[in-house]
Amino acid sequence: MDPSSDRPADGHEDEAEVIWLFDPEAAPAPGPVPCGPAELFARLAATVARAGLHTVAVTGVVSGLKRRGRWASFDLAEHAGGSETASAVVRVVLFAKVLRRVDAALAADGRALDDGVAATVVGEVDFHAAWGSVRVVGSEVEVHAGRSEVVARRETLVVELEASGALGAQAALVVPGRPLRIAIVAGEGTAGAADVDAVLDGSGLEWQVLRRSVPMAGPAAPEAVAGAVTALARQRPDVIVVARGGGARGELACFDTEVVARAIAGCGVPVWAAIGHASDDTVADRVANRSCPTPSAAASDLVARVHDFERRRNEHLVLADHRRRVADVEARARRAWLVAIVAVAALVALVLAALG
Description:
The protein is α/β, with parallel strands linked by helices. The protein folds into two domains: about 35-145, CATH 2.40.50.140; about 150-305, 3-Layer(aba) Sandwich (Rossmann fold), CATH 3.40.50. It is built from eight helices and ten strands. The strands form two sheets. A five-stranded mixed barrel has the order 1-2-3-5-4. A five-stranded parallel beta sheet has the order 7-6-8-9-10, sandwiched between helices. A hairpin with a 4-residue loop joins strand 4 (about 115-130) and strand 5 (about 135-145). Helix 4 runs parallel beside helix 8 and helix 5 packs parallel to helix 6. The longest helix has about 60 residues, at about 295-355. The radius of gyration is 38 Å and the shape is elongated.
């Protein structure tokens, strides 16, 4: 067939309808251009500077203050609605020159930079690429009068627990000499849980381990930890270890709450608190049967307790065997003396009979 026969008589072709399958104006924007961590932090710093947030003034409660030679660091925590747990935390660092000036100014005013005080820090927002964190490098610190509401509430709780006798209730409980059933309250997959497991597993001893994995920080943590302690106590372990590895002091606020403190104090099973670093002190540490510096230290104490128990048991067995041997020797000696006496008596009787 001649394709020309389909053309119009006037020799002009019909205009073809164009259907666009791709609209350039509706095309999605290209994806983000990959960059390295250092460049990402540089972009963040530039964005903060453009937003006018390079220098900020932040008010909160000081927690986890650590003086490291000539400089110091701490968390500035916010407690929304008077909550016992921090709703937001920012890291603050004060370098040598600023720290000396701040300490001198506060001392002249009869105040000091310390955990629990409310303070306002003026400084620069710094994205610390090497640590993957954001912090405020302080240039000025104002400590407000009086203790913060959070610290006042904590101190009031300790007084109430002491007045009710709950502060010393756990001290009356005794951990068996050879603890076998160990209950562990820890975060899922956390360093604290791993430290306890590593020490117990490496001991070569036999253990029956009960576990409850719960959040150990944040708004849900207090009820979760208290519930875990109560639930594990019903399974009658020999000891319950509440293990939470190191971190910022503000992350340990869960263990200053009343619900956790009363759950531990009212527990019928000895509770060992292994929370944070060795320098950390919480209300949970105060009410617990034992306060251990770290989770691994708690596990090491359990291992040492078992070794001491077995050593004492072996010493008792050795002593009992020695006493038995001594008793046997003494019994044989008594029998020998008795035989000798009888023999002498018989000999005397024979001599007397012969003389008579």
